[in-house]
Amino acid sequence: MPQLAPPLVPGFLAPPRDEPAPAREPASTPPPVSDDGLGDLDLGLELEEIAENSINNTVVVASEQDSKIMVGKEQESEIMVGKEQARAKVTHSIVFVTGEASPYAKSGGLGDVCGSLPVALAARGHRVMVVMPRYLNGTSDKNYSNAFYTEKHIRIPCFGGDHEVTFFHEYRDSVDWVFVDHPSYHRPGNLYGDKFGAYGDNQFRYTLLCYAACEAPLVLELGGYIYGQNCMFVVNDWHASLVPVLLAAKYRPFGVYKDSRSILVIHNLAHQGVEPASTYPDLGLPPEWYGALEWVFPEWARRHALDKGEAVNFLKGAVVTADRIVTVSKGYSWEVTTAEGGQGLDELLSSRKSVLNGIVNGIDINDWNPATDEHIPYHYSADDLSGKAKCKAALQKELGLPIRPDVPLIGFIGRLDYQKGIDLIKLIMPNLMQDDIQFVSTDSFP
């Protein structure tokens, strides 16, 4: 099987577009990207602090840098209320790789973060690309209506053949949104499965995504220039976790991406992309890298006496090979190192504590602001809460509940999943409903 040794020569060019791509003035010079050391540490966002140390292969213990990592109260306030953000003193080419990003495709918090954090980083002067699948299911198709066909094809050697993928691109909010197109992303149902469970070819689908994400900075001319090899890859959850492995096993041995770095962001450790060990040859990785993904289920989790529990684990591969690891909160960074919360990876994550940090997920206040939200009937703010009571009454009316300002209205917003504590709600519900309360829950299932 041929190696995907970069620089990869793209396959044949796609047929020309019927209509021209949206105009975007190429820069007179490539966007400035610094590679001259750590620079100043007062970058305002902790992810940028981690980026600084990752891109230079430097380990900094968070507790020793707290005073330099966190912004001052005044600057932090400006960022939180959405005022113009100060430009970073050291900028990078950043490539987010994700299975979802709002508003294009979203199943949960991963989509929220990957839809808003890249925009925030671009506002601080970084050059940012987001690489995700182009999901078409009949209803989401319109979300990609502004993305144009780049006419770039590449062939990816994996799963017993050379699989062709193409790229679509939209430039929005100073971010390059790149969509990987392949027939496996075109099907009814949600992003990762249907009513019968997870799709059986998810390993194949996200292997394609990871290869394509590694190639995109090398082959796509966006705004007149490719991103090139000096990139920081931000890989999110198991869907993107093969990227750090590919960088280490397939690119750096050829001298490509030798100065790039990768950050693994763990949003949900419960999903790890585990498949039978027999699928390893399908991934197109050298045999000597099997240990990076090797996973053995404990005896109690095996199906029968002859089952050896041998598997490959995408997320484990990223934990082993990523330069830095972050979780979506400080508490979660501790939780994943415990036997109770580590989902079998606690010992490995504990061994990488020196490069493990927690960053609290923020919110996009352009979308989640009751003072301006177009999806609520009345607006309110910290200075004027009158609209909040009106919103409560409107919700009670919509759901057929008695319109009573005096009764507590309790809401649960989240997947009906054990991870979200739905078992605790079920436990207390009989006693809770004996009181004079109203309870509203979403109907989002895993």
Automatic annotation (TrEMBL):
Pathway annotation: Glycan biosynthesis; starch biosynthesis
Domain (Starch synthase catalytic): residue spans on this chain: 94-350
Highest taxon of the lineage: Eukaryota
Molecular function GO terms recorded: alpha-1,4-glucan glucosyltransferase (ADP-glucose donor) activity
Any one of the GO BP annotations: amylopectin biosynthetic process
Pfam families named in the record: Glyco_transf_5 (PF08323)
Catalytic activity: [(1->4)-alpha-D-glucosyl](n) + ADP-alpha-D-glucose = [(1->4)-alpha-D-glucosyl](n+1) + ADP + H(+)
EC number: 2.4.1.21
Compartments in which it is found: Plastid, Amyloplast; Plastid, Chloroplast
Alphabetic keyword roster: Amyloplast, Chloroplast, Glycosyltransferase, Plastid, Starch biosynthesis, Transferase, Transit peptide
GO CC annotation: amyloplast; chloroplast
Region feature (Disordered): 1-40
Main location: plastid
SUPFAM superfamilies reported in the protein's UniProt record: UDP-Glycosyltransferase/glycogen phosphorylase (SSF53756)
PANTHER family the record matches: ALPHA AMYLASE DOMAIN-CONTAINING PROTEIN (PTHR45825:SF11), GRANULE-BOUND STARCH SYNTHASE 1, CHLOROPLASTIC/AMYLOPLASTIC (PTHR45825)
Protein family (similarity comment): Belongs to the glycosyltransferase 1 family. Bacterial/plant glycogen synthase subfamily.
Protein known as: starch synthase
